[in-house]
Amino acid sequence: MPGTSITTAFIPVQDPLAAADWYSRMLDLAVGSSNTFSAVLGAAGSASVTLMGPDSGIDAAPGLPWATCNFWVDDLAKTRARLAESGVPTGPIEGSADVCLFFTARDPDGNTLLLTDR
Question: Whole-prediction pTM value?
Fold first, then answer.
């Protein structure tokens, strides 16, 4: 049986070019490609995130109340503080240090993002 891996998670946005810039600045993700249809972002050795704009024909409006994926970050507290200082709505750090610590944030389109320590 062939192996299975996750290659991308989709997030609906109004403007893929502007959203790609925000995700690149706020989460330090490399922009692989971007246009009015979509933007593909990722980090070395990881799955990608595809920001889907209205031109893509996706039948999903921005402002998802749940996260389509999680973003693992090196320093959860530092990342949360930096996002909050930049005006990004963030929740408290929650979870269990033995299992997983996390917090939620919202991108400029109102999508819920989940940031984790593992």
Answer: 0.93
